[in-house]
From TrEMBL:
PANTHER family in the cross-refs: CHEMOTAXIS PROTEIN METHYLTRANSFERASE, CHEMOTAXIS PROTEIN METHYLTRANSFERASE 1
PROSITE patterns in UniProt: CHER
Keyword annotations of the record: Methyltransferase, S-adenosyl-L-methionine, Transferase
Protein name: protein-glutamate O-methyltransferase
Keyword Membrane part of the UniProt annotation: no
Domain CheR-type methyltransferase: 1-275
Catalytic reactions on record: L-glutamyl-[protein] + S-adenosyl-L-methionine = [protein]-L-glutamate 5-O-methyl ester + S-adenosyl-L-homocysteine
Annotated SMART domains: MeTrc (SM00138)
Enzyme class, first EC level, given as a word: transferase
EC id: 2.1.1.80
Biological source species: Paludisphaera mucosa
Pfam families documented for this protein: CheR, CheR_N
Length: 275
Protein backbone atom coordinates (compact mmCIF):
# COMPACT_ATOMS: atom_id res chain seq x y z
CA UNK A 1 0.00 0.00 0.00
CA UNK A 2 1.61 3.23 -1.15
CA UNK A 3 -0.46 6.19 0.09
CA UNK A 4 0.39 9.86 0.08
CA UNK A 5 -0.64 12.14 2.93
CA UNK A 6 -4.21 12.84 3.91
CA UNK A 7 -5.92 15.44 1.74
CA UNK A 8 -7.12 18.67 3.34
CA UNK A 9 -10.66 17.32 3.52
CA UNK A 10 -9.60 13.94 4.94
CA UNK A 11 -7.33 15.53 7.55
CA UNK A 12 -10.15 17.86 8.63
CA UNK A 13 -12.51 14.91 9.07
CA UNK A 14 -10.00 12.95 11.14
CA UNK A 15 -9.17 15.96 13.31
CA UNK A 16 -12.86 16.55 13.98
CA UNK A 17 -13.45 12.89 14.83
CA UNK A 18 -10.49 12.72 17.24
CA UNK A 19 -11.70 15.87 18.97
CA UNK A 20 -15.30 14.66 19.31
CA UNK A 21 -14.29 11.25 20.67
CA UNK A 22 -11.39 12.19 22.95
CA UNK A 23 -11.36 15.96 23.39
CA UNK A 24 -7.86 16.10 21.91
CA UNK A 25 -7.32 18.94 19.45
CA UNK A 26 -4.88 17.94 16.70
CA UNK A 27 -2.88 20.88 15.37
CA UNK A 28 -2.91 21.77 11.69
CA UNK A 29 0.83 21.02 11.60
CA UNK A 30 0.25 17.34 12.46
CA UNK A 31 -0.91 16.15 9.02
CA UNK A 32 2.19 14.01 8.39
CA UNK A 33 1.99 12.48 11.87
CA UNK A 34 -1.69 11.57 11.56
CA UNK A 35 -1.19 10.33 7.99
CA UNK A 36 1.58 7.99 9.11
CA UNK A 37 -0.36 6.67 12.08
CA UNK A 38 -3.59 6.10 10.18
CA UNK A 39 -1.54 4.34 7.50
CA UNK A 40 -0.48 1.79 10.14
CA UNK A 41 -4.13 0.94 10.73
CA UNK A 42 -4.76 0.66 7.00
CA UNK A 43 -2.01 -1.94 6.79
CA UNK A 44 -3.34 -3.75 9.86
CA UNK A 45 -6.93 -3.89 8.62
CA UNK A 46 -6.31 -4.21 4.88
CA UNK A 47 -8.57 -1.25 4.13
CA UNK A 48 -7.55 0.44 0.91
CA UNK A 49 -7.71 4.15 1.66
CA UNK A 50 -8.04 6.92 4.23
CA UNK A 51 -11.66 7.75 3.36
CA UNK A 52 -12.74 4.11 3.38
CA UNK A 53 -11.09 3.62 6.79
CA UNK A 54 -12.78 6.75 8.14
CA UNK A 55 -16.17 5.49 7.01
CA UNK A 56 -15.43 2.10 8.55
CA UNK A 57 -14.55 3.35 12.04
CA UNK A 58 -17.71 5.47 12.08
CA UNK A 59 -19.89 2.48 11.17
CA UNK A 60 -21.48 0.04 13.62
CA UNK A 61 -19.23 -2.77 12.37
CA UNK A 62 -16.15 -0.59 12.75
CA UNK A 63 -16.60 0.29 16.41
CA UNK A 64 -14.16 -2.49 17.33
CA UNK A 65 -11.51 -0.54 15.39
CA UNK A 66 -12.09 2.76 17.21
CA UNK A 67 -9.82 1.86 20.13
CA UNK A 68 -6.89 0.71 17.94
CA UNK A 69 -7.32 3.91 15.93
CA UNK A 70 -7.14 6.07 19.08
CA UNK A 71 -4.14 4.07 20.28
CA UNK A 72 -2.41 4.78 16.98
CA UNK A 73 -2.96 8.54 17.02
CA UNK A 74 -2.24 9.06 20.73
CA UNK A 75 1.37 9.62 21.80
CA UNK A 76 2.30 7.69 24.96
CA UNK A 77 5.88 8.25 26.07
CA UNK A 78 7.12 8.84 29.59
CA UNK A 79 9.59 7.59 32.19
CA UNK A 80 9.93 7.10 35.94
CA UNK A 81 10.13 10.25 38.11
CA UNK A 82 9.48 12.65 35.25
CA UNK A 83 9.54 16.13 36.87
CA UNK A 84 11.64 15.09 39.86
CA UNK A 85 10.45 17.94 42.09
CA UNK A 86 6.94 16.52 42.09
CA UNK A 87 8.11 13.22 43.52
CA UNK A 88 10.42 14.91 46.00
CA UNK A 89 7.39 16.79 47.33
CA UNK A 90 5.42 13.55 47.41
CA UNK A 91 8.07 11.78 49.48
CA UNK A 92 9.14 14.63 51.76
CA UNK A 93 5.90 16.54 52.35
CA UNK A 94 2.73 14.84 51.17
CA UNK A 95 3.27 11.31 52.52
CA UNK A 96 4.60 12.39 55.95
CA UNK A 97 1.65 14.78 56.16
CA UNK A 98 -0.79 11.94 55.56
CA UNK A 99 0.88 9.89 58.30
CA UNK A 100 0.65 12.77 60.77
CA UNK A 101 -3.01 13.37 59.95
CA UNK A 102 -3.83 9.71 60.52
CA UNK A 103 -1.86 9.60 63.80
CA UNK A 104 -3.90 12.58 65.01
CA UNK A 105 -7.09 10.74 63.97
CA UNK A 106 -7.97 13.45 61.49
CA UNK A 107 -8.13 11.02 58.59
CA UNK A 108 -8.50 7.25 58.06
CA UNK A 109 -5.49 5.06 57.27
CA UNK A 110 -6.30 5.07 53.57
CA UNK A 111 -4.51 6.73 50.68
CA UNK A 112 -5.87 7.09 47.16
CA UNK A 113 -3.97 8.43 44.16
CA UNK A 114 -5.14 9.01 40.61
CA UNK A 115 -2.66 9.13 37.76
CA UNK A 116 -4.80 10.66 35.01
CA UNK A 117 -3.58 9.79 31.51
CA UNK A 118 -1.07 7.35 33.01
CA UNK A 119 0.26 6.13 29.66
CA UNK A 120 2.37 2.97 30.12
CA UNK A 121 2.45 3.13 33.92
CA UNK A 122 5.66 4.89 34.84
CA UNK A 123 3.84 7.67 36.70
CA UNK A 124 1.64 5.52 38.98
CA UNK A 125 4.52 3.15 39.68
CA UNK A 126 6.71 6.15 40.56
CA UNK A 127 4.08 7.07 43.15
CA UNK A 128 4.09 3.48 44.40
CA UNK A 129 7.89 3.49 44.75
CA UNK A 130 7.69 6.52 47.03
CA UNK A 131 5.10 4.80 49.20
CA UNK A 132 7.13 1.59 49.20
CA UNK A 133 10.17 3.56 50.36
CA UNK A 134 8.21 4.40 53.56
CA UNK A 135 6.44 1.07 53.87
CA UNK A 136 6.94 0.89 57.63
CA UNK A 137 4.86 4.04 58.08
CA UNK A 138 2.11 2.71 55.81
CA UNK A 139 1.84 -0.78 57.28
CA UNK A 140 -1.83 -1.57 57.69
CA UNK A 141 -2.95 1.23 55.37
CA UNK A 142 -5.17 0.75 52.34
CA UNK A 143 -3.14 2.29 49.52
CA UNK A 144 -4.74 2.51 46.09
CA UNK A 145 -3.09 4.04 43.04
CA UNK A 146 -5.43 4.20 40.06
CA UNK A 147 -3.95 4.75 36.62
CA UNK A 148 -6.27 5.61 33.75
CA UNK A 149 -5.71 6.19 30.08
CA UNK A 150 -7.60 6.26 26.81
CA UNK A 151 -5.13 3.89 25.14
CA UNK A 152 -5.78 0.17 25.55
CA UNK A 153 -2.26 -0.73 24.41
CA UNK A 154 -0.72 1.68 26.96
CA UNK A 155 -2.79 0.11 29.75
CA UNK A 156 -1.71 -3.37 28.69
CA UNK A 157 1.93 -2.27 28.97
CA UNK A 158 1.24 -0.67 32.37
CA UNK A 159 -0.23 -3.90 33.73
CA UNK A 160 2.76 -5.87 32.42
CA UNK A 161 5.09 -3.45 34.30
CA UNK A 162 8.19 -4.31 32.24
CA UNK A 163 10.48 -1.37 31.41
CA UNK A 164 13.73 -0.67 29.60
CA UNK A 165 16.76 1.34 30.66
CA UNK A 166 15.42 4.54 29.12
CA UNK A 167 12.31 4.41 31.31
CA UNK A 168 14.39 3.75 34.44
CA UNK A 169 17.19 6.25 33.92
CA UNK A 170 16.06 8.35 36.93
CA UNK A 171 15.56 5.40 39.28
CA UNK A 172 18.52 5.23 41.66
CA UNK A 173 20.40 1.92 42.00
CA UNK A 174 19.10 1.23 45.52
CA UNK A 175 15.46 1.56 44.43
CA UNK A 176 16.10 -0.48 41.32
CA UNK A 177 17.55 -3.29 43.43
CA UNK A 178 14.77 -3.09 46.03
CA UNK A 179 11.73 -2.72 43.80
CA UNK A 180 12.55 -4.26 40.40
CA UNK A 181 13.48 -7.71 39.11
CA UNK A 182 15.79 -8.14 36.15
CA UNK A 183 14.08 -9.37 32.99
CA UNK A 184 15.52 -10.58 29.66
CA UNK A 185 17.01 -8.21 27.08
CA UNK A 186 18.12 -5.60 29.59
CA UNK A 187 14.64 -4.92 30.89
CA UNK A 188 13.23 -4.66 34.39
CA UNK A 189 9.93 -5.75 35.96
CA UNK A 190 8.28 -3.93 38.87
CA UNK A 191 8.14 -6.26 41.88
CA UNK A 192 4.74 -7.71 42.87
CA UNK A 193 4.48 -5.83 46.17
CA UNK A 194 4.78 -2.52 44.32
CA UNK A 195 2.51 -3.58 41.48
CA UNK A 196 -0.14 -4.57 44.02
CA UNK A 197 -0.69 -0.92 44.93
CA UNK A 198 -1.65 0.04 41.37
CA UNK A 199 -4.64 -0.77 39.21
CA UNK A 200 -5.35 0.37 35.67
CA UNK A 201 -8.50 1.04 33.68
CA UNK A 202 -9.69 2.81 30.59
CA UNK A 203 -11.10 6.28 31.11
CA UNK A 204 -11.88 9.33 28.99
CA UNK A 205 -10.96 12.46 30.95
CA UNK A 206 -14.05 14.25 29.65
CA UNK A 207 -16.30 12.04 31.78
CA UNK A 208 -16.67 11.55 35.59
CA UNK A 209 -14.65 8.81 37.24
CA UNK A 210 -17.13 7.59 39.83
CA UNK A 211 -16.09 5.92 43.08
CA UNK A 212 -14.31 7.37 46.10
CA UNK A 213 -12.51 10.72 45.90
CA UNK A 214 -8.73 10.86 45.59
CA UNK A 215 -6.26 12.33 48.09
CA UNK A 216 -3.79 13.21 45.33
CA UNK A 217 -4.24 13.54 41.58
CA UNK A 218 -1.46 13.85 39.02
CA UNK A 219 -2.61 15.50 35.78
CA UNK A 220 0.51 15.99 33.70
CA UNK A 221 1.59 16.31 30.09
CA UNK A 222 -1.81 15.63 28.56
CA UNK A 223 -3.91 18.80 28.36
CA UNK A 224 -1.47 20.42 25.96
CA UNK A 225 -3.50 18.57 23.30
CA UNK A 226 -6.87 19.95 24.49
CA UNK A 227 -8.57 23.23 23.60
CA UNK A 228 -10.07 25.58 26.22
CA UNK A 229 -13.53 24.01 26.13
CA UNK A 230 -12.19 20.47 26.59
CA UNK A 231 -9.73 21.61 29.27
CA UNK A 232 -12.57 23.09 31.31
CA UNK A 233 -14.52 19.82 31.06
CA UNK A 234 -11.48 17.88 32.28
CA UNK A 235 -10.86 20.35 35.12
CA UNK A 236 -14.47 19.95 36.26
CA UNK A 237 -14.01 16.17 36.34
CA UNK A 238 -10.74 16.47 38.25
CA UNK A 239 -12.12 18.87 40.86
CA UNK A 240 -15.12 16.66 41.47
CA UNK A 241 -12.83 13.64 41.98
CA UNK A 242 -10.42 15.41 44.37
CA UNK A 243 -11.08 14.83 48.09
CA UNK A 244 -11.43 17.72 50.51
CA UNK A 245 -7.91 18.70 51.52
CA UNK A 246 -6.57 16.77 48.53
CA UNK A 247 -3.61 17.79 46.35
CA UNK A 248 -3.50 18.31 42.59
CA UNK A 249 -0.17 18.11 40.73
CA UNK A 250 -0.17 19.49 37.19
CA UNK A 251 2.38 19.60 34.41
CA UNK A 252 4.05 22.79 33.19
CA UNK A 253 2.20 22.84 29.86
CA UNK A 254 -1.39 22.05 30.91
CA UNK A 255 -2.52 25.68 30.61
CA UNK A 256 -5.25 25.41 33.27
CA UNK A 257 -3.98 27.76 36.00
CA UNK A 258 -6.82 30.18 35.35
CA UNK A 259 -9.37 27.37 35.74
CA UNK A 260 -8.27 26.36 39.26
CA UNK A 261 -9.52 29.38 41.18
CA UNK A 262 -11.35 27.19 43.68
CA UNK A 263 -8.07 25.62 44.81
CA UNK A 264 -5.24 27.03 46.92
CA UNK A 265 -2.05 27.47 44.89
CA UNK A 266 0.97 26.20 46.83
CA UNK A 267 3.50 26.03 43.99
CA UNK A 268 3.26 26.72 40.25
CA UNK A 269 2.45 23.03 39.78
CA UNK A 270 0.74 22.21 43.10
CA UNK A 271 -2.78 23.04 44.28
CA UNK A 272 -4.84 22.01 47.29
CA UNK A 273 -8.59 21.72 47.73
CA UNK A 274 -10.10 23.29 50.83
CA UNK A 275 -11.24 21.07 53.70
Amino acid sequence: MNLIELTDAEFAKYRDLIYRVSGIRIGENKRVLISNRVRRRLRATGIAGYSAYFDFIRSAAGQVEMQPFLDAVTTNETYFFRDAAHYQWLADEFLPGMVREAAARRRPRTLRFWSAACSTGEEPYSMALKVAGRKGEFAGWRVEIVGTDLSASALTAARAAVYDERALHRVDPADRKAFFDEAPAGRWTVKPEVRAMASFRSHNLLFPTGGEPFDCIFLKNVLIYFDAVSKQKVVDVILAALAKGGSLVIGPTEGIHGMLGGLEKLKPWLYRKGS
